[in-house]
Amino acid sequence: MPKSSKVTQREHSNEHVTESVADLLALEAPMDYKSSQMSMNMAGGGPPPIGKPDISPDLEDGRPAWNSKLQYILAQVGFSVGLGNVWRFPYLCQKNGGGAYLVPYFILLILIGIPLFFLELAVGQRIRRGSIGVWNYVCPRLGGIGVSSLMVCGFVGLYYNVIIGWSIFYFFQSFQYPLPWSDCPIRRNGSQAIVEPECEKSSATTYFWYRETLNITSTIADSGGLNWRMTLSLLAAWIIVCLAVIKGIQSSGKVMYFSSLFPYLVLFCFLVRGLFLKGAVDGIAHMFTPKLEIMLEPQVWREAATQVFFALGLGFGGVIAFSSYNKRDNNCHFDAVLVSVINFVTSILATLVVFAVLGFKANVMNEKCVVENAEKILGYLNSNVLSQDLIPPHVNFSHLTSSDYAEMYGVIKIVKEDSFAQLGLEPCLLEDELNKAGAVQGTGLAFIAFTEAMTHFPASPFWSVMFFFMLINLGLGSMIGTMTGITTPILDTFKIRKEFLTVGCCIVAFLCGLLFVQRSGNYFVTMFDDYSAGLPLTLVVVLENVSVAWIYGTKRFMQDLEDMLGFRPYSVYFYLWKYVSPVCLLVLISASVVEMAISPPGYNAWVQDLATERFQSYPPWALVMCFALIIVAMLPLPLVFIARHFNWLPDGSNKLSVSYRKSLAKEASTLEDETRFILGKNPSEAPSPMPSHRAYLGPGSTSPVELITNSTSISGYGSGYQTNPAPPKSES
Q1: Considering the entire predicted model, what is its pTM?
Q2: Rounded (5°) CA angle 401-406-412
Q3: Is residue 622 within 8 Å of 109, Cβ to Cβ?
Q4: Mean pLDDT across the stretch 311-334?
């Protein structure tokens, strides 16, 4: 309780409290707070009436609740574990020192990942609102945090569901043998049959991705019209998402039982199958061989922090929305640690699977290289360009191994040093193939490298169906969280039927998503992925951290957690929230801005004639679009701050759920009882005016009693308790 509390001031006065503070605060019909179980047995307090049911908060305000703790955990896991765990984390490991990359990742998971994830879970569970309602209440002037979070969710959801649409297309294409991307198509040129040149210059899987699936144009300026197959796939993706979230957590919670667990079944199946493939151990060993010298580079730590940040879904609003449907005494600290550990373990599991399969692919490609170059050497031997004396006697061309070829290659290179370049022989090193295989990420890994590896599997259609069905479920889990982060704050603010809102959002999103299913749509997916979320979302989380730790007050927040959880969280969280996490996030923002400034804005365009990707700069209108995405996402932050500072926008901080307002009312009733008890005694006999453990969760540092007695007007539900609320006071 703040020292400026009216209760504390009235300890030394003879004033009597003449109004029922609880009734004013609840703004509803008077309640018998004397018989409340939260009241102390003092001054008229007593046991609750016999037969009166104990109504839980989620029943009082009609707010939906999770059917079980397992359902809630699966929802959080499904939201946090997404496509990035499968196609981003393995690439970052390979790029940033292999096993050594796990060290900075784990350190940053402890320093910023778990604390900030715990923070979002706690505020959502405590206030029982979506992102807009939570940050309006914690700090009304920073209420734009919730709006910006919602905007980012919208941008990400638009292109993320396109990826699910691509996965749906590949899923249905997998029900045929051989797989359609196994071989290059044959083109008839009169009576002559020739291999499609674009495919021959690249590969069958690359051709299928760029030409058969995307039918991509060569520049972002050339839209090429709608790709009707991708349009239908996108429509199917939005129908699935709509059906999953149309009833809120009642429908999405049931979907999570399958969509969250099925990917683990597939990953374990792929891991077991992959370990029996030739070259799988080489791939895993290559992956986890630590390169300690790389670990100290700042770029490695920046990318590790970014991956931790996005892997847990911080700032999107989905974490807060999911936790707002919990009971207020749920152990959210356990949930934060559990989900973070599951996310980390899943990333490692996915990395094992990816590099086991890519190791097999590298081995196949290396053997292919050996065969092709051995044929060249045989040709040179037959034409007397090379002497038979250069070939070691134990080498058998009909059963040539990689080691035999490496020995033969070394001898020829030494003897024919002057003319060796004209021979056109390749070293065919497995290490080179592993580096090449591990250097792909995102769609390149899922739709090109991994699909190519699966064509060499026995029963390849089965594994292809399983893989793309896994991608659909991984994406669906993340989309459910993203959609919940959009719909929950809107439903909390406006009284709309969730079915109408969900269907309306999905229809609008599908229409906007047509931008991404043009023939040039892949370039816009890249643009949105690079610019719509990164910087705005990092800023959102920084302000979340600052608003709780510095404006609301870390000590008050820790006390609220103790009241809510029944135990006090570890003291280390105090320092992590107040000092470590803000500093790390500010460094991350600075590094992101510097990276954005020094990296030329552009995209990798597919050049059909060359059958390869080539970097191109964005045209001026596309540059404007890039920076508009950043500005639009961050614009609510200053707008809401200015509007609330000059009282142009109503203070939405007290638009709380009925259950939460009633809990405040009960607390205020207890404070009133204590005040009357104190005033009824002589000062020398009066006990301590306020137990030290009482904490009031609010944007300012005032008590419930002061909040009411200082009010100039009291209006109905949906308006603030004060017409001119005092600015929040920082509490350290």
Answers
A1: 0.78
A2: 125
A3: no
A4: 89
